[in-house]
Design a protein that fits this description.
alpha/beta; binds adenosine-5'-triphosphate; binds magnesium ion
């Protein structure tokens, strides 16, 4: 008997080619990168692609106000309100703590934003309600910034819920500009996959690139590829590889 692995397409142009078709279903993938590298946009693009293809999703907002997220998504042409009304999409508000007028209109609110148990309860409810197949948590770093010793345990709890309920998840992980890692030892090993986004300055110019560091359950491209953020979101140049030669950056045909 052979098991064909089911894959979930990221929908990000150029990326599924590097993933041999997509992310293996039920994988929990760490999306790691410094400030401004495109992690939030990546997550939103992944969710919106799912919605357009009949796959419901949940976005857990820990860094930005849900109202701001909807607005930012709409600016890329990703208007999620229709999908929220249809019950295909939900934002879990783990940002406002329920404060403010706008927060009163949110359906899934985590009252104590530091309470991981409450967050997981609200997340489970949202996943079940919309029958989510895709989940994005932006960002998981927020959950354990002040307590790195519990990072692995939080990660394992999330994995059990996300994978257990059949979702394929992107967990945004923030690292500092100079950090080579992906978000700490407990977390990096627990993740089923790691995709790293980078922004490097060469000769006074910022260059975006991406590398797939690991992806359980599949072979994947091992090279660093340039990508861009456009008005339609991320575009990965899977036919180009990036090489750094001294202070020069060179794009070569892959
Ligand atoms: N319409 C657009 N066209 C091109 N680039 C854009 C556009 N909108 C945003 N960007 C770029 O995307 C960056 C923000 O990306 P994003 O919010 O996904 O970063 P992030 O990795 O989530 O950062 P942080 O860790 O600070 O939250 C901006 O700094 C800008 O360079
Ligand atoms: Mg962000």
């Amino acid at each position: 008997m052979s098991f064909k692995i089911e894959r979930v397409k990221t929908g990000i142009p150029g990326l599924d080619e590097l993933l041999n078709g997509g992310i293996p279903k039920r994988n929990v993938v760490l999306l790691s990168g410094g400030p401004g590298t495109g992690k939030s946009i990546f997550g939103q693009q992944y969710l919106y692609y799912g919605l357009q293809n009949g796959e419901p999703g949940v976005l857990v907002a820990l860094e930005e106000h849900p109202v701001q997220i909807r607005r930012h998504m709409a600016a890329f042409g990703w208007d999620v309100r229709k999908y929220e009304e249809e019950g295909m999409f939900a934002i879990v508000d783990a940002f406002t703590g329920g404060y403010g007028e706008a927060a009163k209109r949110e359906r899934y609110v985590v009252r104590s934003v530091d309470d991981v148990a409450e967050l997981i309860d609200v997340l489970k409810e949202a996943i079940r309600d919309v029958k989510a197949q895709r989940v994005v948590i932006d960002s998981v770093s927020t959950l354990y910034l002040t307590k790195p010793s519990v990072a692995r345990s939080i990660m394992m709890q999330l994995k059990r819920v996300l994978s257990g309920l059949g979702t394929t998840a992107i967990l945004v992980s923030q690292v500092s500009v100079t950090e080579r890692g992906f978000g700490g030892p407990g977390v990096e090993h627990a993740a089923d996959g790691i995709i790293r986004l980078d922004l490097d300055e060469y000769n006074g110019e910022l260059v975006r690139s991406l590398i797939i560091w690991k992806m359980r359950g599949t072979k994947h491209d091992m090279r660093r590829h340039p990508f861009e953020i456009t008005d339609k979101g991320l575009v990965v140049y899977h036919n180009k590889v990036i090489r750094f030669r001294g202070d020069r950056v060179v794009f070569e045909e892959a």
